[in-house]
Write a structure and sequence with these properties.
about 450 residues; alpha/beta; about 10% strand; binds D-xylulose; binds cobalt (II) ion
Length: about 450
C-alpha cells in the first residue's frame, strides 16, 4: 500500500506520562501497556473511535452550518475523498492509541444515486479499510447501518408504514452486515434511529413493534447464513429524533426482545447520554442489563444536565464513571464490547488538536475510573456491606423465600408465632457516599 502523508503532522503519538505531567497532549492515567490482573489496560478498556463524530462531524447544529473544516475533505470525487479521510482517521486511531473504531455504512462511503451504486462505493472504501486495518492493527469494534439520515427514512426504517421502505432498509442492513463481517467486526449495533413515533394519531404501534421484531429476526437469520459470529447489540434511547423511540431504555428493550423471542441473540450497547435522557443514571442502565447477562458494550459520552437533548459530550466525570465501572467490573467486563467514544467536539472546537484533547480526556477519565473501581472491588468494603445487608436471605426462611419454597401461610405463621416486628437497620447511605469520596480523592 502507498504510504500516505501525515494529516496530523504536528501531533506525536500520545504517550503515557503519569498524573504529574504538564504536557496536555499526554495521558495522565491511561497507560495502554500497564498490566492489571494479567491483562493490559488496552485489553481491559478496548477504546474505540466513533467515525461519525470524529471524522464526519462538522459542528453543525439546527442554528447554523458546520464550523470544522478539515483539509482532507477537499476534492471532487466523493469516493476518493472518503479514502483520504480514512487515511487521516487511521493516523488518528494510531496516534491516540485506540485499538478499535466503529462506523455506520454511510460514514465511511458516500451514498450513491441507487442502492447498487451505494454498495459499489462501500465496497471500494471497505477494501481500503481492509488494507489500513492490516497495516495498522486497528480493528473494527462494530458496524451499523445509517437508517435515519436519508429522507426516505423520515417515518422510520423497520417501523415505516410503507413496506417498500422496510425492504430498502433490509437491503441496507444485509450489506452492512456483510461488510462488518468482511472487516472482522466483533459486534453489530442496532440503534433505533427513527424507529418510534411523532404522534399516535397516524401510528399503529402494535404493527410497528411487530415489524421491528421481524426486521431483527431477518438480520439474525442473515448473520447465520453468512457465518457472521459477532454479537448483536441494541442501543436504547428514549427520544430524539422521534418523540418516543421504541428502544426506550434497557428494561423496555429486554421486554421487547423477550416478547419476540430475540433475547438469545442480543445484548445492549449502553450510552450514557441516552440513559440520562430516559431519566436513569448511566450506572442504572448498566446494572439492569448486567442483571440479565445482557451487558454488551458502551457508547461513552455525557449529556449536559442543563440541556435536555443528546449533546454527546466527552465525559470527564470520574465519579459517574467509577460507579459505571463498578457495575461493569462486577458483571465481569464487556466481553466483545468496548468503550466507544460516541462523543463530539463542541462547535467552536475547530482545531485537529481539539480531537486529541477530547479523546485524551475521555480515555484518562475511564482509565482512572477503572483503577478506582478495581481497587474498591479488591478491598471489598462496599461488597461486604451489601452482602451483609442481604444476609437474612442466606439461611432459614430467607433462603426458602429465595428458592421458592416459602408460602404465605408459612410466613404468616412465622411472624405470628416467632418473628414479630422486624428490627430496623440503617441503609448508611451517607457513610457509603463518604467512603466513595475517599476512594475518589486519595484514600
Ligand atoms: C445516536 C447514537 C448513534 C448510535 C449509532 O444518538 O448514539 O450514533 O450510536 O447509530
Ligand atoms: Co450511540
Amino acid at each position: 500500500m502507498k504510504k500516505s502523508r501525515a494529516h496530523f503532522a504536528a501531533i506525536p503519538t500520545i504517550a503515557y506520562e503519569g498524573p504529574r505531567t504538564e504536557n496536555a497532549l499526554a495521558f495522565r492515567h491511561y497507560n495502554p501497556d500497564e498490566v492489571v490482573d494479567g491483562k493490559t489496560m488496552a485489553e481491559h478498556m478496548r477504546f474505540s473511535i466513533a467515525y461519525w463524530h470524529a471524522f464526519r462531524g462538522t459542528g453543525s447544529d439546527p442554528f447554523g452550518p458546520g464550523t470544522i473544516v478539515r483539509p482532507w475533505e477537499a476534492g471532487k470525487d466523493p469516493v476518493s475523498v472518503a479514502k483520504v479521510r480514512m487515511d487521516a482517521a487511521f493516523e488518528f486511531f494510531q496516534k491516540i492509541r485506540a485499538p478499535f473504531y466503529c462506523f455506520h455504512d454511510r460514514d465511511i462511503a458516500p451514498e450513491g444515486r441507487t442502492l447498487a451504486e451505494s454498495n459499489r462505493n462501500l465496497d471500494a472504501v471497505v477494501a481500503h479499510a481492509h488494507d489500513l486495518q492490516k497495516a495498522t492493527g486497528v480493528r473494527l469494534l462494530w458496524g451499523t447501518a445509517n437508517l435515519f439520515s436519508n429522507p426516505r427514512y423520515m417515518c422510520g426504517a423497520a417501523t415505516n408504514p410503507d413496506a417498500h421502505v422496510f425492504a430498502y432498509a433490509a437491503a441496507q442492513v444485509k450489506k452492512a452486515l456483510e461488510v462488518t463481517k468482511e472487516l472482522g467486526g466483533e459486534n453489530y449495533v442496532f440503534w433505533g434511529g427513527r424507529e418510534g413515533y411523532e404522534t399516535l394519531l397516524n401510528t399503529n404501534l402494535k404493527r410497528e413493534q411487530d415489524h421491528l421484531a421481524a426486521f431483527l429476526h431477518l438480520a439474525v437469520d442473515h448473520a447465520k447464513s453468512i457465518g457472521f459470529k459477532g454479537q448483536f447489540l441494541i442501543e436504547p434511547k428514549p427520544k430524539e429524533p422521534t418523540k418516543h423511540q421504541y428502544d426506550f431504555d434497557v428494561a423496555s428493550g429486554i421486554a421487547f426482545l423477550r416478547t419476540y423471542g430475540l433475547e438469545k441473540h442480543f445484548k445492549f450497547n449502553i450510552e450514557t447520554n441516552h440513559a440520562t435522557l430516559a431519566g436513569h443514571s448511566f450506572q442504572h442502565e448498566i446494572e439492569v442489563a448486567a442483571a440479565q447477562g445482557m451487558l454488551g458494550s458502551i457508547d461513552a459520552n455525557a449529556g449536559d444536565p442543563l440541556l435536555g437533548w443528546d449533546t454527546d459530550q466527552f465525559n470527564t466525570d470520574v465519579r459517574e464513571l467509577t460507579l459505571a465501572m463498578l457495575a461493569i467490573l462486577r458483571a465481569g467486563g464487556l466481553g466483545t464490547g468496548g468503550f466507544n467514544f460516541d462523543a463530539k467536539l463542541r462547535r467552536p472546537s475547530i482545531d485537529p488538536e481539539d480531537l486529541f484533547h477530547a479523546h485524551i480526556g475521555g480515555m484518562d477519565a475511564y482509565a482512572l475510573a477503572f483503577k478506582i473501581a478495581h481497587r474498591i472491588l479488591k478491598e471489598g468494603v462496599f461488597e461486604t456491606f451489601v452482602t451483609n445487608r442481604y444476609a437474612s436471605y442466606d439461611s432459614g426462611f430467607g433462603r426458602e423465600i429465595e428458592t421458592g419454597r416459602a408460602s404465605l401461610r408459612q410466613l404468616e405463621k412465622l411472624v405470628l408465632t416467632k418473628l414479630g416486628e422486624p428490627t430496623p437497620h440503617s441503609g448508611r447511605q451517607e457513610y457509603l457516599e463518604n467512603l466513595l469520596m475517599s476512594y475518589l480523592h486519595g484514600r
